[in-house]
Amino acid sequence: MTPRTWQLLRLLADGEFHSGVALGRQLGVSRATVFSALSSVTEFGVQLQRIRGRGYRLLPAWQPLEADQVNAALTENAACFQLEILQQATSSNTELLRRASLGATSGCVLAVELQTGGRGRIGRSWHTGLGNALTFSLLWRFNCGLNALSGLSLAVGVAIMRALQRFEVAGAGLKWPNDILSSDGKLGGVLIEAQGDMYGPSSVVIGIGLNCSLPNSLAQLITQRAASLDQLCSRAPDRAQLLAAILQDLAGVLQQFSSSGFAGFQEEWQRYHLQQNLPVRLAMPDGSSVNGIALGVSDSGELRLATADGVRLFNSGEVGAC
């Protein structure tokens, strides 16, 4: 979408009707320019209502992310991060990986209002709409090598769960290795992409996506059961509060992980594990599957399954109900 389109969407963010004439007057452009700038927004999943004689309005209202609000909520942790909010990007992870290769510093955060090509685990797409989700990526640099980062995505899941508990998100939990779930479906996920040497130093881009709401137009694009924060909270947090809370908890978790790895998070991760001690089926990358009881994870983040052949450890695969 063009910069002019984004200017208009901000004017429409209150969810009230605004005439094309009034919008044009505010921006110093013609009504025809307003019409042209808004004509293709539905292609990006933006729900815009047009009524002759009344004008335009967004459905629902949109609360844009504001960097100053996030930084204020971060309080003393604001110094740990350099936050930038992009109006639109194909993928926050892709863009931050590019910047990391050019020397971006540890603690850089890119939050995106509208992702047009969000990526999930094993090549899946991550669908979002304007204001419907919190999608951001964090660059973190480690002195250790890639071989010492085992269990990092699980530690990130612990940080997310700590943040969600502040907002009394009912029924949320973790699924190995990087999903945030509820009984209604997937609430969010983590995508870790690493750069560096096996023996150090290394850097990771941590991508996090959480569904804040699920309008029907968006739910129809998602090919699995999904849930959203507004379904699980009596009063869902606004995205600035949520982003600040997750970053605050990530700061502590990543610092601890840097010094001692995943082992210190093992028991806490298992408390959040929704499939703990339940029968599961693990689909393997080669097409085979393994049935067993999910016993949690090892101190390096591997999935522990009690199978017919004894307790086995796995570092890849897709977990499903048995």
From TrEMBL:
GO BP terms: regulation of DNA-templated transcription
Keyword rRNA-binding attached: no
A GO term from the CC aspect: cytoplasm
Assigned keywords, A-Z: ATP-binding, Biotin, DNA-binding, Ligase, Nucleotide-binding, Repressor, Transcription, Transcription regulation
Keyword ATP-binding: yes
Domain BPL/LPL catalytic: 66-258
DNA-binding stretch(es), residue numbering of this chain: 20-39
InterPro entries: aa-tRNA-synth_II/BPL/LPL, Bifunct_BirA, Biotin_CoA_COase_ligase, BPL_C, BPL_LPL_catalytic, HTH_11, Transcriptional_repressor_C, WH-like_DNA-bd_sf
Pfam family, one: BPL_C
The protein's Enzyme Commission number: 6.3.4.15
Catalytic activity: biotin + L-lysyl-[protein] + ATP = N(6)-biotinyl-L-lysyl-[protein] + AMP + diphosphate + H(+)
GO molecular function: ATP binding; biotin--[biotin carboxyl-carrier protein] ligase activity; DNA binding
Binding site for biotin: 91-93, 115, 119-121, 186
Family statement: Belongs to the biotin--protein ligase family.
Protein role: Acts both as a biotin--[acetyl-CoA-carboxylase] ligase and a repressor.
Name of the protein in its database record: Bifunctional ligase/repressor BirA
Lineage of the species this protein comes from: Bacteria, Pseudomonadati, Pseudomonadota, Betaproteobacteria, Nitrosomonadales
Gene name for this UniProt entry: birA
